């Protein structure tokens, strides 16, 4: 951090209509705590402007509140760059309550507009004047690569623009000297997820939610009428939405601009769909609007439809999703992403100096990172250059590791057929613990890949109790990806009390490996089987756990299947609960979430809905804390806040129950607000899986079978599989976007078995952000700022993705 005394003025601009500004004058600080507690922070100004994508309001809220939290004056810039050029009432001071109750809204409350004037020097001169006269020299811009490039040009011209304003007599030399440098931080808003360097852009996940809702609806009518549907999704230059929705829906064919089909694709597609006519009532083809062939000729949805009607005789319909993908309520992921990036943007501006290059805040392995703006822009342009020059393999790699992995897995599952040469291996697949979204997607991809490898597959119903069942055939998992719950059936029973029976079943069916999909019970059950290897040689086989639980409490992974679906379900419930109080007197809701002793679900939902507090076991609290929270909320409710939301994890405290907290708030808030209680319960386990869980489950199923196949080959001796090494019984996890296999015996030391949680949980780092955005005075030293990460062809080529 720069510790020198300097003048600072900050503005945050986004390519949509939202702007916030903060000014630093003669501010000296040595630590984060120093500058946050300084009374001089009141002279800091931020400006904020946006493009129109779901999740933007969460970014507006986060930047506004974080700016105010650190003592700055915040401005909202309406109508994007147009508002910046026009000035006047388009640039307004924001207050804490200005962004109350907007996190759940789609679009952006501060409007958005394209501005040709800003592309001219005259337009940028007007913008500079409007900023300087308000003392703004720090700008946060949220938009795509074009908007961010424009912001960087504005920054590079800043001193020249001020000199011209002085020459024309519009500002004084003193004013120009005081505001001699413009700091810029960008947030990327794009449903296409086409910006190099960041794992996700704001709005992409919400767009996937809209697409999957429509895909699910279309699947029901397609199955009823035995129709083929061609779905056209957005993506003029990037196939991310098409690719992920195809993987998440099990689409039969896919067209994306980065990977055009080889010549003769028409014959191959028609032959494939004709071969599926028997026994299949449904065909889905997904096409990005920018799809092309190898020669750059557009492939349109109507061309594909006519091809299927004329050649195959299919009753085919076209659905063009269009701008419905930009609308609707933001997903939980987008709300949380926007909040994380918005908070980090303010901190980056606070720490910026005249020598700091313009940066963009991105996401890498679920952590906010700072990326050199122009490095990202140049790499993004390089993708299009590769496509223009027909270097399509390079274009796929430049999209990043996740994009490349998605493409490879889609091709593997969609186009590979079961092997005709069978191996000697049998794989048993079972679900253990409570059901969660994504379980069925993992089963589907695991079954298909195991059959592709030539293995025999056993479906095991009802967990460890039902170990051994009929063969699982290829067609039986069709359509499983979008199904909620557990189609195999699942139970929490652990194997220790049925060890002899389980060993007998494994021996009877000659099972060579186990793939166990489930939560804490799955992890603990495989640990018991592994520890029993010394007594039963039948258990000396590869065993893999795919974590699947809404609690997200399995050691060895940052994310479990079903957690994202559960957060979205809880978030939607809380949105409706808050809306129920519209137009009534001031009201506080106490909402209980599931999760056992793990506070992940309560914390993530709390961030997504803008909760005033979230009580969890991992963050101990006492009656003094509860009283302070009630008083804090009462003060807010006396002014402009109409509704309050308090979340409580179901096992956060033995004595401070949901009923106790409800009665405490009801009693202490008397005369200010009333209080209601809601228990979300099993609503959090139901519903269709989120796009993330479908995609994640599909990929984990593939990775699990790939790992098992490798272990089977390595440990096959004299007609049998035998291995008792620790690294052949593992949890398959995702840690900082790296897929890893952690031996269950090693994870034992990292586990709190009494409370069924890992001893160290990464998401606790988000707790300070939750408190700061709820206006609680908390130690800012707990906040972990993002690191600077360079974006080059090499960094993109070695990006592991997931």
TrEMBL record:
Residues 1-415 are annotated as: N-terminal catalytic PFK domain 1. Substrate binds at residues 190-192, 227, 234-236, 289, 317, 323-326. GO terms for molecular function: 6-phosphofructokinase activity; AMP binding; ATP binding; fructose-6-phosphate binding; identical protein binding; metal ion binding; monosaccharide binding. The keyword Mitochondrion does not apply. It catalyses: beta-D-fructose 6-phosphate + ATP = beta-D-fructose 1,6-bisphosphate + ADP + H(+). Keywords: Acetylation, Allosteric enzyme, ATP-binding, Cytoplasm, Glycolysis, Glycoprotein, Kinase, Magnesium, Metal-binding, Nucleotide-binding, Phosphoprotein, Transferase. It is found in: Cytoplasm. Beta-D-fructose 2,6-bisphosphate binds at residues 492, 549-553, 587, 594-596, 650, 676, 682-685, 756. Allosterically activated by ADP, AMP, or fructose 2,6-bisphosphate, and allosterically inhibited by ATP or citrate. Residues 426-802 are annotated as: C-terminal regulatory PFK domain 2. ATP binds at residues 114-115, 144-147. It comes from the Eukaryota. Pathway: Carbohydrate degradation; glycolysis; D-glyceraldehyde 3-phosphate and glycerone phosphate from D-glucose: step 3/4. Residues 54-348, 427-708 form the Phosphofructokinase domain. Mg(2+) binds at residue 145. Its EC number is 2.7.1.11. The active site is at residue 192. Belongs to the phosphofructokinase type A (PFKA) family. ATP-dependent PFK group I subfamily. Eukaryotic two domain clade 'E' sub-subfamily. Catalyzes the phosphorylation of D-fructose 6-phosphate to fructose 1,6-bisphosphate by ATP, the first committing step of glycolysis. Negatively regulates the phagocyte oxidative burst in response to bacterial infection by controlling cellular NADPH biosynthesis and NADPH oxidase-derived reactive oxygen species. Upon macrophage activation, drives the metabolic switch toward glycolysis, thus preventing glucose turnover that produces NADPH via pentose phosphate pathway. This is ATP-dependent 6-phosphofructokinase. The lineage of its organism: Eukaryota, Metazoa, Chordata, Craniata, Vertebrata.
């Amino acid at each position: 951090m720069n510790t020198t005394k300097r003048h600072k003025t900050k503005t945050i601009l986004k390519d949509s209509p939202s702007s916030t500004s903060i000014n630093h004058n003669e501010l000296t600080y040595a630590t984060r705590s120093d500058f946050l507690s300084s009374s001089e922070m009141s002279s800091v100004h931020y400006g904020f402007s946006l493009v129109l994508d779901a999740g933007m309001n969460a970014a507006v809220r986060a930047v506004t509140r974080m700016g105010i939290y650190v003592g700055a004056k915040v401005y909202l810039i309406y109508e994007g760059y147009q508002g910046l050029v026009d000035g006047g009432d388009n640039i307004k001071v924001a207050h804490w309550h200005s962004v109350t109750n907007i996190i759940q809204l789609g679009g952006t409350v501060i409007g958005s507009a394209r501005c040709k004037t800003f592309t001219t020097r005259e337009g940028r001169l007007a913008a500079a004047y409007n900023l300087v006269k308000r003392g703004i020299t720090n700008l946060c811009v949220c938009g795509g690569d074009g908007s961010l490039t424009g912001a960087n040009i504005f920054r590079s011209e800043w001193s020249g623009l001020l000199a011209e304003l002085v020459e024309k007599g519009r500002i004084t030399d003193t004013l120009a000297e005081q505001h001699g440098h413009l700091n810029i931080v960008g947030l990327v808003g794009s449903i296409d997820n086409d910006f190099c360097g960041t794992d996700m852009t704001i709005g992409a996940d919400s767009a996937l939610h809209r697409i999957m809702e429509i895909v699910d609806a279309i699947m029901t009518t397609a199955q009823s009428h035995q129709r083929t549907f061609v779905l056209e999704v957005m993506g003029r230059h990037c196939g991310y939405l098409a690719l992920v929705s195809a993987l998440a829906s099990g689409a039969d064919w896919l067209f994306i601009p980065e990977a055009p089909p080889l010549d003769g694709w028409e014959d191959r597609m028609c032959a494939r769909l004709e071969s599926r006519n028997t026994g299949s009532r449904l065909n889905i083809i997904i096409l990005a609007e920018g799809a092309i062939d190898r020669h750059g000729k557009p492939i349109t949805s109507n061309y594909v439809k006519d091809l299927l009607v004329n050649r195959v005789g299919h009753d085919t319909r076209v659905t063009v999703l269009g701008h419905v993908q930009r609308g609707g309520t933001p997903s939980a992921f987008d709300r949380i992403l926007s909040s994380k990036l918005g908070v980090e943007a303010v901190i980056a501006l606070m720490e910026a100096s005249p020598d700091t290059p313009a940066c963009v805040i991105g996401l890498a392995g679920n952590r906010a990172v700072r990326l050199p703006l122009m490095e990202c822009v140049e790499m993004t342009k390089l993708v299009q250059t590769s496509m223009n020059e027909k270097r399509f393999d390079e274009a796929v790699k430049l999209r990043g590791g996740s994009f490349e992995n998605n493409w490879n897995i889609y091709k593997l599952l969609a186009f590979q057929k079961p092997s005709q040469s069978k191996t000697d291996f049998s794989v048993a697949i079972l679900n253990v613990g409570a059901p969660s979204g994504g379980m069925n997607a993992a089963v589907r991809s695991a079954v298909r890949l195991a059959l592709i490898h030539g293995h025999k597959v056993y479906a095991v119903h009802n967990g460890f109790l039902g170990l051994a069942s009929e063969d699982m055939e290829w067609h039986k998992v069709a359509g499983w990806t979008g199904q909620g719950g557990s189609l195999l059936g699942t139970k929490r029973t652990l194997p220790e009390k049925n060890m002899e029976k389980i060993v007998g079943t494994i021996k009877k069916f000659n099972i060579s490996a186990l793939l166990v999909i489930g939560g804490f019970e799955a992890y603990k059950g495989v640990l018991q089987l592994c520890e029993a290897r010394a007594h039963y040689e039948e258990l000396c086989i590869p065993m893999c756990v795919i974590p699947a639980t809404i609690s997200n409490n399995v050691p060895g992974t940052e994310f479990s299947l079903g957690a994202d679906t559960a957060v979205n379900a809880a978030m939607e419930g809380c949105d409706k609960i808050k809306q129920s109080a519209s137009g009534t007197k001031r009201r506080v809701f106490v909402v209980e979430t599931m999760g056992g002793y793990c506070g992940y679900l309560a914390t993530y939902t709390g961030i997504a809905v803008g909760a005033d507090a979230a009580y969890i076991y991992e963050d101990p609290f006492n009656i003094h804390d509860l009283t302070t929270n009630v008083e804090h909320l009462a003060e807010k409710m006396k002014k402009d806040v109409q509704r309050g939301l308090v979340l409580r994890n179901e096992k956060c405290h033995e004595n401070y129950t949901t009923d106790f907290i409800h009665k405490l708030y009801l009693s202490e808030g008397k005369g200010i607000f009333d209080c209601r209680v809601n228990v979300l319960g099993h609503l959090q386990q139901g519903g269709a899986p989120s796009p993330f869980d479908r995609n994640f489950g599909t990929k984990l199923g593939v990775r699990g079978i790939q790992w098992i196949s490798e272990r089977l080959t390595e440990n096959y001796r004299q007609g049998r599989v035998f291995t008792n090494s620790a690294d052949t019984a593992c949890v398959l996890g995702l840690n900082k976007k790296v897929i890893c296999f952690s031996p269950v015996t090693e994870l034992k030391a990292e586990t709190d078995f009494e409370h069924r949680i890992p001893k160290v949980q990464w998401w606790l780092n988000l707790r300070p952000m939750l408190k700061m955005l709820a206006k609680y005075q908390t130690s800012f030293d707990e906040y972990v700022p993002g690191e600077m990460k360079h974006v080059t062809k090499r960094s993109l080529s070695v990006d592991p993705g997931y």
